[in-house]
Amino acid sequence: MKLIKSILIGAALTGTVSVAAAQEQFIPILSYRVGPYAAGGSGFFGGSIDYMNLVNANGGINGVKLKWEECETEYNASRGVECYERLKSNSGGASLVEPLATGIAYGILDRVATDKIPMTTLGYGRSDAANGKVFPYVFPLITSYWNQAAAMVAYLGSKEGGVDKLKGKKIVHLYHDSAFGKEPLPVLEAQSQQYGFELIKIPVAHPGNEQQSQWLQIRQAKPDYVILWGWGVMNAVAIKTAQRNGFPREKMLGVWWAGSEEDTIPAGDAAKGYTTMTFNTPGNYPVLDEIRKKVYDAGKGNLDDKARVGSVYHMRGVTAGILWVEAIRKAQEKYGKGKVMTGEQVRWGFENLNIDEARQKQLGAAGMFPPVKTSCEDHEGSGAVKVQQWSGTKWVPITPNWVVGDKALTRKLLEESSNKYATEKNIKAACMNG
Amino acid sequence: MFYREAGQFKPTYQADSQIFPIRQDRIGIMLLLAIAFLAVPLVATPYMFSAILIPFLIFSLAALGLNILTGYAGQLSLGTAAFMAVGAFAAYNFMLRIPGIPVLLAFVLGGLCAALVGVAFGLPSLRIRGFYLAAATLATQFFVVWCLTKIQWFTNYSSSGVITAQKITILGYNFDTPGSKYVLTLAIVCVMALMLRNMVRTNVGRSWMAVRDMDVAAEVIGFRLMRTKLLAFAVSSFYCGVAGALYAYAYLGTVEPEAYSLDLSFRILFMIIIGGVGSIIGAFFGAAFIVLLPILLNIIAHALQLPTSVASNLELMVFGALIIFFLIVEPHGLARLWQIAKEKLRLWPFPH
């Protein structure tokens, strides 16, 4: 029992010794830098930390500096919950949390509401959490899987010259056989009914490094398009197997987690022409230059490799950082400038975000992500995405404007699903004010 | 000296066959239970309850379950997480479909469902053994997770296949604080650990051990192989099932089938290997090692202010090195080290 005791005592000591709160806004970082998803984790959280460093270098948010502490989750739900519990009350309390992992997000979904800490889930499930009446503390900002799936159909329709031309076409949904891969099915099924295209669902077992049989099936079906809903190693394998089976990569459309440099570079020249969805426009922005200058040149950069600045995951992290900081700024406008905001106040900030094009320009991020305007009904705030293509060396946006799918449909599904959750959990759906 | 049994005489058979025959052990266990039930709830922080103590207890229970199968009955299994999943999803469905069912009954029924699945997938053990059986139990792992993701009825048609555990209410009391969930988990784990401790001393446990040591010989002396092996699978899966239900209800709250992945099965297997195969306290040691040590290393790395990218990798390296170290020093696990320490204390200060 000695071992257990010493561990418990050690944990108790570190748990209780929390530094007296200074005038700092605390953000726990539940990151993962080891394991199979390290590329995504280090890029995303590196980007967020780079942006927070930049904000601090510029004097903080109305003088309030940001403070953060990192905890390694290994993308494991159990470890993620531990990290969340460990960090949530440090330094005067967490103002927000972003796990970038579906499993961890589900693990702390109920806890954030009890602890009154807003959770952002940029671009992943659960999609129905956009209903702020049922999920007051969850913010699937920018866009959810459902809106992405709807946008995919809209984009494929526009390629054919109108969504009504999709009638009789065949679309394969090649997906990671998990909650993540199945998330878009309600939307895709509804749209296949609506527009009359045939939806062929082909699951790939985790982790997806063997897809011969799936691609054989695809070759036999001769589909017009393949939607690749993959994650991690599955993506590069899918691209390479598609090449081997002679399926044109231009007709493959990936989810945004299948659209980073880490997915295409390992696939080599097979990836050329491959398209994916994204909620960032690839390219360079003044804010990235500022990060290079003020953060990396000062030796405070979070990524070991400076060349990764501006890569897809890094930019996504910067985007998250911008949204966080803007929410805190918004909260300060209501509850007092130059003060440290509580989780409840930051929640109000997230619910009243309005980052339009003018504001993006001030931030040096014009067009980097779609304008975000949230409300109690709509915690997502946008739902717009772009399509990008791999040129062989870098990602290039191929839709000049933001693509938005059938939002009425996704809204209907969202209401149904979130109300079901509310009945299951005995939640009275209502907007939180103040 | 601390552990001398001199003067402890057993005048009756009952006294001789009690669970802890040595007085020091009895006092120690009583003290430990008193601390766990009375002192810890008073002093521990919500963080310790919900992030350290509860998962530690739940993984201990799962490790106990696997230990029945692998440690006592000698049947290698890689399906532990699947049995946990069956327990969790069955308990969820019983609570959902039978309104007003007591939570504890739902846990037991969940465990029983897991036991049924265990028996079904234990059937191959009658013909194959060792690593081949381990490979066969892999089928449980894949089949159960596939089934739970495929058949939407199990997850009540939730679009992403995630269940949300209902509230735990027993006799009108709501177990919604971390402290109360801890006490509930602790009570269940203690009762089940004691039950197991007794079980392995009866003819059931002895038949398991006989089968483990040499199944042909066991059959020759009259143990019925089929019954023994399937009983081991059933009891083991029952324990894992209850652990899985607790994992969903007392720990995470919302669970996707993916949470019960092969990875979790491996972790539990490592727990009993490092803790000590075929020992009850070993399951607790192993769970502590696998669950708590990485957290401790992480906290230490933080205290040392290491850069996070270095710290994360360092944590894994130190953890791996410690596993190798322990297995070289004591291949029979931490429980064996504990036993050796007790024997040494018995003779201290005059070793042979």
UniProtKB/TrEMBL annotation, chain A:
Name of protein: ABC transporter permease
Similarity field: Belongs to the leucine-binding protein family.
N-terminal signal peptide: 1-22
Keyword Signal: yes
Domain Leucine-binding protein: 26-392
Claim: Signal is one of the keywords in the record: yes
UniProt keywords, alphabetically: Signal
Automatic annotation (TrEMBL), chain B:
Membrane-crossing residue ranges in chain numbering: 27-44, 50-69, 76-95, 101-123, 130-151, 182-200, 230-252, 264-297, 309-329
GO cellular component, one term: plasma membrane
GO molecular function: branched-chain amino acid transmembrane transporter activity
Predominant cellular place of this UniProt entry's protein: membrane
Membrane topology: Multi-pass membrane protein
Keywords: Cell membrane, Membrane, Transmembrane, Transmembrane helix
Locations listed in the record: Cell membrane
UniProt cross-references to InterPro entries, sorted A to Z: ABC_transp_permease, LivM-like
Keyword Transmembrane helix: yes
Domain of life: Bacteria
Name of the protein in its database record: Branched-chain amino acid ABC transporter permease
Organism from which the protein derives: Noviherbaspirillum saxi
